[in-house]
Specification:
CATH class of the largest domain: Alpha Beta
Largest sheet: 5 strands, antiparallel
Distance between the termini: 42 Å
Structural class: alpha+beta
CATH superfamily of the largest domain: HUPs
Radius of gyration: 21 Å
Shape: globular
Number of strands: 8
Order of helices and strands: HEHHEEHHHEEHHHEEE
CATH architecture of the largest domain: 3-Layer(aba) Sandwich
Number of domains: 2
Helix content: 40-55%
CATH topology of the largest domain: Rossmann fold
Amino acid sequence: MHLGVPVELLQVGDATSKSGSPEESLRKQRYAALAAAVRRLGLTGVVTAHTVDDQVETILLRLLAGTGALGATGMAATSTLSTCEGMLRVFRPLLSVRRAELSTIVAEAGVTPVEDPSNLDTRYRRNALRQEIVPHLERHFPGFSEALVRSVALSAQDAEFVDDVAASVAETVITRHGSVVSLSRAWVAESHPAVTSRVIRLVVRELLGSVDREIGYERTEAVRAAARGRTGAVVELPFGIRVVVARGSLDFSRMRKTDGDTG
């Protein structure tokens, strides 16, 4: 192209060919294709053009999914994602830039962006937020997007402190026996939910070998309730995780590999 930058086009499959929501399926396929390309080309990672607007949409989607402070912190400037093609390093240098600003910069550079026509399809949740809900909020609450990102960033500071507490406690209440990871049942039943919910998520991530999957509030609450319930009960979590209530422990194991389950 006229900028002298080599281009490689990647193609992903049909969203209907995978289990789970079409959005989640396509997201997984995109990142898997990128991970394969990064490995093939010997690159460090990929740089995306995610903006403040994308961050707002991500935060709202996670809030609406009930993932809590951990999930609602939005996208990090740098993160590592687990894909079926291996790990992928993602860099997002434009998270402080508005989409309109980026469009202006691209136009002034004489570049015509490729618009994905599916972005106009409001059957997809992110598109509904982008096309309808966020503009409505911006009209009635000017500065809404910046205020939301700022508020979540402040909340994230508090969440990071509790994260540290949970991480320090985790190894004292977790035991491992082969493929089973167990939590002290008494500790889950008696400790503060802000800490226990995080430790439960740490156990799930350990079993999945992934840091980019999250289970929601209802699921962690189901595990906490099970700790106070009857021995022998079973709680099914997303991603093929099963929790069996033993006499003194909650035993987590991964029963199957599922790419399309969501939390």
